[in-house]
Amino acid sequence: MTCSFLDGDHFTNGPGSLIPVSDAAGEIAAVGEGVTRFAVGDRVVNTFHTNWIGGRLPAAETLRGYGNAQDGQLAQYRAVSENALAALPESLTYEQGATLPCAAVTAWTARHAAEAGRRRAHPRHRRCLAVRPAAGEGARARVIATTSSAAKAAKLTGLGADTVIDYVETPEWGQAVLDATGGRGADRIVEVGGPGTFAQSLVAAGTHHAEIVLVGFVGTGGAPIGFMDLFRSGATVRKTWVGSREDTEVLVRRLAVRPIGPVIDSVHPFGDADAAFRHFAGRGNFGKVVIAAP
Q1: What pTM was computed for the model?
Q2: Measured in whole angstroms, how far is the alpha carbon of residue 104 from the centre of its chain?
Q3: Share of the chain above pLDDT 90, in %
Q4: Which of 17, 115, 209, 258 lies 20 to 30 A from 89 at CA?
């Protein structure tokens, strides 16, 4: 199981006092009558949305996620629908698998999921946030990453980022992206800050019809956005809300043949889950915070 920014004070479609944690990997312990997709002993990872199998994003109010619309995965055993699981490749550990359902699938769909039938060239420059390396490694793209400290910047460089910008030291990082790309800007921007950073994403997009993929809303405040800001940028703004089971299956198949090791910050025992959440809330982690079931 892994911690997510959604595991704290956030919107919910379900009752209060839900069991937290949206992401998990494990082994099938038992199956019910009529189950055909999996058997006892199979290694699996859950999908983020239990009822989005494939196709276009359904209406938000119809989506059901763990720890949001129903009890989450912080448990030793969990009864789930076979339709809300994907096979976990043998090349990945359970700890690595638990990092995939939210962060990695979001990075994958931000990078790859465009409208059906729409042709798209490979981007030449991009900013990569959230699960930063997962969206960029092996994608034949130049990665411009943003982070909050020199230590994290060094780690991102070690993972393959071409350029790293410290947004604490450089709050006008949108201009820094323009400078790093010779004034052209990014082709695709993965926007996780939301209202706190969107104005900078518009600057980073330049004026050449970039795509800004809205992923999250962890930032607050930020400059107001006017119509002319959007008009001058020429950017296409697209939302992604993690992904479907089909997206998850495509990603894990890709990882099986071209391994990209998920970045894990720390692993905490199930009996000390509170420590995992405290560590995550401290924002000092680099990579996923994992809770290991006994």
Answers
A1: 0.85
A2: 5
A3: 60
A4: 115
Structure tokens at 172: 């006008």
Please state the length of the chain. 294
What's the one-letter identity of residue 79? A
Cβ-in-10-Å burial (0-12, 13-18, 19+) of 162 comes to middle
pLDDT at 4: 64
Spatial contact of 67 and 21, defined as CB atoms under 8 Å apart: yes
What are the start-end ranges of the H helices in 139-195? 150-158, 173-180
Q: Which CATH class is domain 5-106+243-292?
A: alpha beta
The Cα–Cα gap between 269 and 292 comes to: 5
Ranges of each domain in the chain: 5-106+243-292, 119-239
> What token pair was written down for 103?
């962060």
Residue 79 to residue 77: CA distance in whole angstroms? 7
Spelled out in words, what is the top-level CATH class assigned to the domain 119-239? Answer: alpha beta
Which of 86, 3, 103 is CA-nearest to residue 50?
86
Calculate the alpha carbon distances from 261 to 89, 104, 247 in Å.
Answer: 12, 11, 18
Written as one letter, the residue type at 208 is H
236: β partners? 211
